[in-house]
Amino acid sequence: MTPLVYVLEEQIRDLLSQTGDVRLVDGVAYGFDDWTVFHAYTEKPYSTPSGRICPCVAMRSDAAGFVDEEKLMLQVRSRVDPDGDPIVVLLAGTDAGGSPSCRALVLTEKGVAGADARFVPRRSELFSRNTGLLETSALADKKVVIVGLGSGGSPIALELARAGIGHFTLIDFDRLELGNISRHVCGVNDLGRYKTLAVRDQVLQKNPYAKVSTMEINVNQSLGQVEDAVAACDLLIVASDNDQSRFNLNQMSLNNNKVTLYGRAITRAAGGDVLRVRPWKGPCYNCVFSSGLIDGREEEMSQKRQALAVLPAYVEEDKINTMIQVGLSSDIAPIANMMVKMALVELSRGIETGMSTVDEDLASDFYVWANRREEAYANWPRMGFKWTHPSILRWYGARIDRDLDCLVCGGHLEEEPTT
Amino acid sequence: MGWSSQQSARLHLEMGILSRYFPTFFLKDSIIPGHAVIEGTLRSNAGNEYLIRLRVPADLPNSVPIVEIVSPVLRDRFGHSLVDLGTSYPMHLLKPENGAVRICHYSASHWHPNITFFKVLLKIRAWIEAYEGHLDSGYAIDHYLPHMEA
Ligand SMILES: [Zn+2]
Description:
Number of helices of chain A: 12
Oligomer: heterodimer
Number of domains of chain A: 2
Radius of gyration of chain B: 15 Å
Structural class of chain B: alpha+beta
CATH topology of chain B: Ubiquitin Conjugating Enzyme
CATH class of the largest domain in chain A: Alpha Beta
InterPro entries (chain B): UBQ-conjugating_enzyme/RWD
Radius of gyration of chain A: 26 Å
Number of helices of chain B: 3
Order of helices and strands of chain A: EHEEEHEEEHEHEHEHEHEEHHHHHEE
Distance between the termini of chain B: 34 Å
CATH class of chain B: Alpha Beta
Strand order of the largest sheet of chain B: 1-2-3-4-6-5
Strand order of the largest sheet of chain A: 10-9-8-11-12-13-14-15
Number of strands of chain A: 15
Mean pLDDT of chain B: 91
Distance between the termini of chain A: 60 Å
Number of domains of chain B: 1
Low-confidence stretches of chain A: 413-419
CATH superfamily of chain B: Ubiquitin Conjugating Enzyme
Largest interface: A-B, 32 and 30 residues
Helix content of chain A: 25-40%
CATH topology of the largest domain in chain A: Rossmann fold
Bound molecules: zinc ion
CATH architecture of the largest domain in chain A: 3-Layer(aba) Sandwich
Structural class of chain A: alpha/beta
Order of helices and strands of chain B: HEEEEHEEH
Number of strands of chain B: 6
């Protein structure tokens, strides 16, 4: 088959905008499937690419629109690897209509093959239907902060990127370990990396032009830094694994009047819950926590660090190990998906995205989900054919009012901030 | 960074409650979060006095405060220093630091911002009675105080 070469249109435009002598530019390419598909870059790629690395050189046409291919080939041929790795050659120019164009060749010691060059669209075309990667630009200016990039936070980040959210701040100080892989959006290729950076690369795979900043810090020890990020966002999403961070983030959400979504799974992901906090208008995280609806003891313990942080120091190692009980990715998915839906509703306020009727349905601030009749849901009836009693695999909204005696958002401490 | 306005208000609220119920307690080094401590004495039913130090967390009121017994030097019924016991489940002790006994009162999984220092000191007061019970009977503190489930 004719080799296929994908190139970032933005990089070709940059190359064409250079002035001065025409010269050979060293780039890099990544090949797949027996060197039949290439992703070629004139400059360092925006994220960590995959594939097998091979050389790439690029040249632009001169002011008269001419590319001296003979001279180019002479230069490139001397670089061909006798062991067989190809070189991708990009020839950047402009078409009759004045738009940038690119031809691609693949050189091996066997000779030159013409390739089918295709553009990954530049930013302004990214959101155009049919030709773009994403179908909507409505939410491109929205900024979300996601705290916790584990099995819950990582799919949320990806779904929001797919939905066209343009700005992300990802906060987590954990690294990806073997035990995380089966429930995480990242795989073995990312082992050992900070979850923030690995997820950033995944987000950029969906939207190469998303602005993603990352903070590899412990929320509880870097309150000022985190609060600055919260103050600048449109929505705070909390998928962290401990109550101390949720209490601290709750205070920041109230201080800065930012709608916040909290989600978690309970032991072995038998189920979970999602809480939406609309500061000062509904219950805060502490209102709900102190009402007993959220119980810290039930929280799913997915790793030892998490268990050590909340258990009394005298709990023996054996006990800690037995408490680490994780559920399946498919048990976490409904909780993450609900948070994505609620996030899109919040971010779509005042924008036409088709989410407004969902907003009417989501009257509650607190939702409960059961995956199996276990733990807190052990006494629920079987699903059967009835829809009038609680059952697994359905969402339930609970009415919770603001607690006027809440020591965090109750009336006795301070007035609602005006921000 | 100093305390936020909410934290200053919370400290004020905490000290207001303590001034009513535990009036010997006062705030020290309150300027810098992470250094602030509240100190005072608790008196047992038998009339013994214990100097208590509560370390105000930098993220007040969102994490469990450390509570230490500064004096007297505590020993168990058999003469061993409680500091030397280290972390002790039967005696409700956390790992001691700087030679001071640290009491296990609320565990992190039971903590929430509605718990005031007053409630913490009530737990310490109960620990002291249990400790004196231990000195009398030899039973561990565990015998007198229920544990919070992990
Ligand atoms: Zn509240």
